[in-house]
Amino acid sequence: APTYTVTGNIMGTMAYISPEQVQGERTDKRSDIYSLGVILYEMATGRIPFTSEQPATILYQHINEPPPLPTSINPDIPELVEQVILKALNKNPDDRYQSAGNLVKALAEAIRADAFITGETLPDDYGKKEKIGEGGMAIVFKAYQHSQKRHVAIKVLKPSLVNTNYISLLQRETELIAQLNHPNILPIYDFKVEGDYSYIV
Asked: Between the N and C ends of the chain, which has fewer C-beta atoms within 10 Å?
């Protein structure tokens, strides 16, 4: 990005400057969060959020205009990751992440949650994963189990509920279903608790 030096109190790279810095207001670590948000935006989309041949226009955009949605530029960006980027780019410092640690944690959780939502965290033995349902407690995938050469349904407990009483509830559900024998009820093949994930096959 081009670097401009503007007379007065504003100096720096226009593409990464925070709104409060543009307006000559007090800056703190949350201004750095905004700049980091611009970098994340650029990494995710391949471009910076605000561009113009005129430095004054870029400054105006930082203060007044929302950035284009990252997914409008790169549709492959997970929605949860987009939300993290946009929060970092909030015009109001109070509405951004309040520390770099909080931002890093939120980004890691967004990436992890997306991997869960798409079924990428399930063992490699399960291929052709397709999400077929979701509730407050779990997400259900249809998959093909290569080792057993069969199609299965996999109910995965949401990561936010792992290490709580919900694991016991999922296990109890497994035990109850295993006792049933009905053509409309799928047989239970497995119940796993692996790291941050618990699921029924």
From this structure: N
Nearest to 44 by CA among 93, 79, 3: 79
How far apart, in whole angstroms, are the C-alpha atoms of residue 143 and residue 123?
11
**The amino acid at 14:** M
- How many other C-beta atoms lie within 10 A of the C-beta of residue 30? 20
- Indicate the SS3 state at residue 27: coil
- Cβ 107 vs Cβ 115: under 8 Å: no
> Residue holding tokens 């909080």?
102
Which DSSP category does 52 fall into?
A: -
CB neighbour list of residue 164: distance below 8 Å, 6 or more residues apart: none
Q: Which two tokens stand for residue 74?
A: 């790169």
87-132 pLDDT tens trace: 999 999 999 999 999 999 888 888 877 776 777 767 788 887 788 8
b or e along 39-68 (b: 16 or more beta carbons within 10 Å of the residue's beta carbon)?
ebbbebbeebbbeeeeeeebbebbeeeebe
Sequence-distant contacts of 179-186: CB under 8 A, at least 24 apart: 186/153
Distance set, CA 183 to CA 140, 170, 186, 187 (Å):
19, 22, 8, 9
